Amino acid sequence: MNHFLAREGNASEGFLNESDSHHASRVLRLNSGDRISISYGDGIVYEAEIENIAKKSLQFKVLDERRRQKAPLLQIGIAPTKSNDRFEWFIEKAVELGVQRIIPLLCEHSERKVYKRDRGLRIMEAAFKQSHKGFMPELSELTELKKLDELNLPEQRYIASLNNSERIALRAIKFHEPQLILIGPEGDFSAKEVAWAEKQGFKHLDLGPEVLRTETAAVQIAAIAQYEAQRPE
């Protein structure tokens, strides 16, 4: 069953946007009466039936609630990698694994100073549809590290940096509570950035003895967070 992110509607009926309507009618060759899976990105997945379909418009009626996805509690602040493909791979996997928010970070050692959020949103939506997710994460604009304090940050705050020897093990994080984890660029966070994070209440996080690539560290954290959040408290 094909899965879509619906932008307009409720628990009874709704509409797909022009792009998805075109894809459903012209590419997938769906017709009135066919069943589809839809979500509004709020965690609920519905089974629906197409009522009217055209090149620019698809109207559906909701038949049943199939499942509810628990809202993720993990926010990841991550510096976009020099290779845009690697960062986009992380975004895709973050949607599949389930995160609450992705915050692209602009750091002193960042090799990528520009990030096209619109492209990231398209990748996220494709991953959302492919994996039949119910919850769509938030993707922030590129944010300077020192401006993170302007956001509503959770109490659990961690920074994965090589600049400190006293670190908390990943298993010590309370994944049943909201948390924000920062992952720096290929050249790591600067000493000034680490000092700023410490003043903001960030604790140092230990990801193990190996030096992981930026996107690998982020996916590792997302996967562990998903696993731990599903375990009984």
From TrEMBL:
Residue ranges of domain Ribosomal RNA small subunit methyltransferase E PUA-like in the record: 16-63
UniProt keyword Repeat, yes or no: no
Catalytic activity: uridine(1498) in 16S rRNA + S-adenosyl-L-methionine = N(3)-methyluridine(1498) in 16S rRNA + S-adenosyl-L-homocysteine + H(+)
Signal peptide: none
UniProt record, GO biological process: rRNA base methylation
Function: Specifically methylates the N3 position of the uracil ring of uridine 1498 (m3U1498) in 16S rRNA. Acts on the fully assembled 30S ribosomal subunit.
Entry similarity comment: Belongs to the RNA methyltransferase RsmE family.
Protein's recorded name: Ribosomal RNA small subunit methyltransferase E
